[in-house]
Amino acid sequence: MKILVINAGSSSLKYQLIDMDDESLLAKGLCERIGIDGRLTHKPQNGKPAYEADVPFPTHKEAIEAVLEKLTSAEYGVVDSMSEIGAVGHRVLHGGSEFTESCLVDDACEAAIKKCFPLGPLHNPANLMGIKACQAVMPGTPQVAVFDTSFGMSMAPKAYIYALPYEYYENDSLRRYGFHGTSHRFVSARACELAGKPGTRVINCHLGNGSSVSASIDGKCVDTSMGLTPLAGVPMGTRSGDCDPALLQFIMNKYGFSVDEMLNILNKKSGVLGISGVSSDFRDLDNAAAEGNERARLALDKFAYEVRKYIGSYAAALGGVDVLTFTAGVGENSASMRASICEGLEFLGIKLCPERNKVRGKEALISTDDSSVAVYVIPTNEELMIARDTLSLVQ
Questions:
Q1: Cα 37 from Cα 29, distance rounded (Å)
Q2: For residue 235, is pLDDT > 90?
Q3: Average pLDDT for residues 346-375, to the nearest whole number?
Q4: Residue 100 — very low, low, confident or very high, per pLDDT cuts 50/70/90?
Q5: How confident is the model at residue 48 (pLDDT cuts 50, 70, 90)?
Q6: What is the CATH number that goes with domain 2-147?
Q7: Confidence band, pLDDT 50/70/90 cuts, at residue 31
Q8: Hey, which end of the chain has fewer CB within 10 Å, N or C?
Q9: Comparing 2-147 with 197-377, is the CATH topology the same?
């Protein structure tokens, strides 16, 4: 079966078409500037030429129509007709407490996605628009929602509850949910395969412009660093990560910021960008630090320090660790950041091999032979995880 995977944003739509007979990628692409002027980038994987041009996308519906036209076209296509696409899998940010796993889209599912609009105001409305657009263009084709928060739903109450008056949890569902869940699920499952034993304790570091750390046993989440929103946890490209809530009151009172202005600072002007004043891109920070920029070095050191602290705390939560994994843009490609994070973790049995650690962007064991914890680079594949869930539900 061929499955179309959709990741819809408010003004963009990323897609992949995957043949699940061998899990091969047939095509991928991106619709940008939806509702403005529109641009489509389409990349077949069968030797046919790529397509990139301005295409008007008044709504997500026109974007989906353009994607399907390219997938089935004689010049750029990878299938003969839309009938070859057996189902569509959609990434949905927030499923709230109702959804602990992926589900076929029906009225109840759509209602739950809408209910979570306040919890995911930037993503959930766009995710639902993507679903509605596919329903309009592909009537009768099964649609599946894969929730980013579902991985964290196996956490125990002691891990997900906030130490606030309990009625905020009862009345408003305010709790730790965690994000990057599809990535954490994919990588932790692969780590368990590599370990090949029951009860495998995995700490996964999903490190990129957005970063999070998770702890799991046999692929089931025990804890995760992001919280009610993706703002919590380690510092990121532009997000602050954890900080003292009273800081916000101090800054707002002194500078006269509104709540929305303060959240904009925390989400878009903080993290390694805020510390360094240079960039949110870790490659830029590496270059600046090499040239002697002390704030860029401080930003990198702060990031590594906070990730290292999470690894230590999660080792305590798990009662030890069997596999430590690195994934996403920074985790898969930055040997220097992996080395900085693992420095000083020898007491946990983590020993990095400098030569093995030179790997970029591919699966590899990077720990020494005598390391009691296996350390891996495992490239994430959220789209394949979505496609696997979709295939399972449709079958």
A1: 17
A2: yes
A3: 97
A4: confident
A5: very high
A6: 3.30.420.40
A7: very high
A8: C
A9: yes
With helix as H, strand as E and coil as C, how does 45-104 read? CCCCCCEEEECCCCCHHHHHHHHHHHHHCCCCCCCCCHHHEEEEEEEECCCCCCCCCCEE
Residue 384 identity: L
pTM above 0.85, yes or no: yes
Tell me how far apart the alpha carbons of residues 28 and 33 are, in angstroms, rounded to a whole number. Answer: 17
Q: What is the pLDDT of residues 294-319, one digit of tens each?
A: 999 999 999 999 999 999 999 999 99
State the average pLDDT over residues 341-350.
Answer: 97
Q: What gap in Å lies between CA 100 and CA 13, rounded to an integer?
A: 25
What type of residue is 311? Answer: I
| Cβ atoms of 23 and 29 closer than 8 Å | no
Where does the pLDDT of residue 277 fall: very low under 50, low under 70, confident under 90, or very high at 90 and above?
very high
Q: Which runs of consecutive H residues, i.e. helices, occur in 319-366?
A: 328-333, 335-342
| SS3 of 205-255 | EECCCCCEEEEEECCEEEEECCCCCCCCCCCCCCCCCCCCHHHHHHHHHHH
Distances in Å between the alpha carbon of 269 and those of 122, 226, 246? 18, 18, 18
Report yes or no: 327 and 207 within 8 Å, Cβ to Cβ. Answer: yes
| 3-state helix, strand and coil shares in percent for the chain, rounded to the nearest 5 | 40, 20, 40
* Tokens 């997938």 found at: 71
User: Whose structure tokens read 């296996």?
Assistant: 374
Return the number of other C-beta atoms located less than 10 Å from residue 74's C-beta.
Answer: 7
The Cα–Cα gap between 232 and 243 comes to 8
DSSP string computed for 262-290: HHHHHHHS-HHHHHHSS-S-HHHHHHHHH
Q: Which residues are catalytic?
A: 148
Domain ranges for the chain, please list them. Answer: 2-147, 197-377
- Superfamily for 197-377? ATPase, nucleotide binding domain (3.30.420.40)
**Is the pLDDT at 339 greater than 80, yes or no?**
yes
Nearest to 78 by CA among 41, 29, 45, 40: 45
Cβ atoms of 15 and 6 within 8 Å: the answer is yes
